[in-house]
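We store amino acids, tokens; thus:
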Amino acid sequence: MKKKLKLENLDCANCAAKMEAAIQKLPGVNAASVSFLTQKLTLDADDERFEEILDQAVKLCRKVEPDCKILR
């Protein structure tokens, strides 16, 4: 499943790169892209585990940028 999600309060391109790298390492993730310019996360992950993977991605984003939110 592939989904585009809006990010809120992403402050820098470096943080976006860190988030992207961390999310790509999650088991079940086929591809992930975090764009600072568009404030979007594009996540392609296993269909049956998508919500679980998305929850993990939210936690990773908060570690990198505590004020950043992924809007579902």
